[in-house]
Amino acid sequence: MRGEVLHGWVVPGRPHPLLAADQSPAWAALRDAFAEARARIAASGADLLVLYSTQWLSVIGHQVQADPEPEWVHVDEEWHALGSIPYKLRVDAEFAAAWVAAARERGLHTRPVAYRGFPIDTGTLVASKLLNPDNALPICVVSCNMYADRAETLVLGKATRDAVQATGRRAVAVAVTALSNRLFTTPIDPAADRISSLKDDEWNRKILEFLGEGRLEDVAQLARTFTREANADQKFKAIWWLAALLGQHNGYEGDVLAYQPIWGTGAALAQLRPSPGETAALEFDEDDVEVFHGDRNVLDTEPVDEEPSTPPHAEAPGAVDTGTAPRPVGPYPHARREGDLLFLSGMGPRQPGTDTIPGGPIRDETGAPRDYDVAAQTRACIENIARVLEASGASLQDVVDVGVFLVDMDRDFATFNEVYTEYFSAIRPTRTTVAVSALPTPIAVELKVVARVPR
Amino acid sequence: MSGPGRIVAGVLAPHPPHLVYAENPPQNEPRAECGWETLRWGYERLRSSLSDRDYDVIVVHSPHWKTVVGHHVLGVPHFDSLSVDPIFPNLFRYHYDLDVDVDLAEAIAAEGAADGLVTQVMRNPAFRVDYGTIVCCHMVNPAWDKPIVSISSNRAYHYFSNEVGDAEMLALGRATRRAVEASGRRAVLLASNSLSHRHFVTEPQLPEDMSHEHIHHHGQYLWDMRMIEHMRAGRTAQILAEMPDFIDQAVSEAKEGSLVWLLGALGVPEYPATLHGYGTVIGTGNAIVEWDPRRAEGT
Questions:
Q1: Which of A182, A363, B50, B262 could lock onto A196 through a cystine, CB 3.0 to 4.6 A?
Q2: Mean of the pLDDT values across residues A248-252?
Q3: Residues 320-379 of A with CB under 8 A from B
Q4: Residue segments in chain B with a per-residue pLDDT below the cut of 70
Q5: Does A78 sit within 8 Å of B69, measured CB to CB?
Q6: Model's pTM, two decimal places?
Q7: Residue B257 — left, alpha, or beta (φ > 0 → left; ψ -120 to 50 → alpha)?
Q8: What is the separation, in whole angstroms, between the first and last Cα of chain A?
Q9: pLDDT tens for residues A40-54?
Q10: Which CATH architecture has domain B6-295?
Q11: Residue range A4-274, CATH number
Q12: What pLDDT, on the 0 to 100 scale, is given for residue B159?
């Protein structure tokens, strides 16, 4: 079953509603709003909470929490006097793996983290404790890269959606972020907490007015201005992630459950539900981005695979990796030689270097099916295979077996077979063709090949 | 303790966890085969230099304990836990076991408060000591046989301006010096920040592959060398004059306040500092620099 994002939330991440709600009417109101949000999520039929937390900062790309049961006692570095947060979370590690793969597929440097004692950030814990206190739902969370700007964060949101769809999850998206983010720098009376300035307050209210009207894309377009004017939390990039994940439009049902100060910052809970009856009002003033091509890969190396049990590609005997084929999206080489036989990893149509898909992806930005050219995709698969074979000292003439995976056998088999015949009718390798429910990226066809290496 | 307290050394002591990773101490879980030797040799020279004097406590100002509501100090006598670097968990998972000089920590907080600064003493025993503190203390004193005081990095630079941040940190440095002198302790002060601080955002398959290590861009290197030459020539007042531009143009980690705090504690020294080492870590510039107050006294 194809997964979907049921609805999205903006929630604050500071610990006051969790640890000190009784000290301030504002913090108590936020705690109550979390309770309402918790009830709505429980009633939604969701099977996953997927989080982006501005308090989990990363430098080396993005990190995805992949420890199935992280457990520790957390103490916030600023708010340690409020008490400790003991936790044992339930993380959807299978989804984490899919998320990392989807992000890499879109050009993002991404790695899973699964280390005992890894410091889970306060924002993730506050959201998890208040929205999902009994671990009724598994969660998964991604870090906020401190250097990432709009393009990288949009692509991350789209990769999140790819992973939700590919895994069949029914997810609720949670952007853990403050609005204006100017804290008072001296002790305050919690009962008299307020937004740190009238200007910040006015900006917060404008943002919430838009969110209340379901105008998520308009808020995303305003993120840079909001950051300049009100020191938004981490450039307000969480809203870019959420907008890209939910589909980048203004056609939502918005509901602001609460807006209160936390030590001078703006803290709000707002829900965004898909609303098919409304008309989106797109007004892009910047390019949309599908694949990240930024300057992240400064060292000109492949991303590191952090799974401790997975050795680097180069250490695998007989492994073949070539820059002329599309970058692998997981811990595997392009091919591996065993004796005279060469086993190629499954090969799709993605183009080396650009990751574009000839013939177009099989679904659009919102996840809806779109027309595509399976002939072009098939031809691209075979050309990719030829490049890997060439890098291994072989050619298509040496192929002895082909496995074919089609996502729509009825629609595509005949066209696929015509292109296949062009290349293989004289070579005549054995072949098996199966239909599959989905492939990791929005492609229609993938081929798996075994070849004999010429002596 | 006997006699008046004093600062026996002030050190710019950066904290990249890569240095601990490459050294392979027993406390760290990940293992490396080499890496960042020029900086590790620099710490070796620093340890050798410090071996000619006795001291009672290490006081460290760490950029990786970030606070907004004032300057915080550790106020629990003993910590024993696991530090996992949130940025480089693949390199640094370190089992620490350390003592805190709570009396001195409280005295620093009190002196700062008396000078108009907001200060807090951190009393929660479940608190995890930040990896910046742990890395530079390990590199300076791997035996961990001295108690420490750790001071948080206040965000005054980020909230107001580099100039306001400098003023705040100079005041905290002076407060630290007064507290040390009143305590009777002989203290080594560590300012745990890098110089230029623009990182690479990818890392090679093998993190310690030195064929990939270099400064992020030439402008950073020029700034780093300029600052180091000021230090070597005893021109720390000039460092303070240029600090706002250095922070902005080299994305310097001095924006976390450690170096200015140190210069404030040392009284903006005019005697030459000793450079023990310089190197880059994932593109950032790091120098190990020692100020020995005996040089001011001509001894």
A1: A182
A2: 87
A3: none
A4: 1-3, 298-299
A5: yes
A6: 0.79
A7: left
A8: 46
A9: 999 999 999 999 999
A10: 3-Layer(aba) Sandwich (3.40)
A11: 3.40.830.10
A12: 84
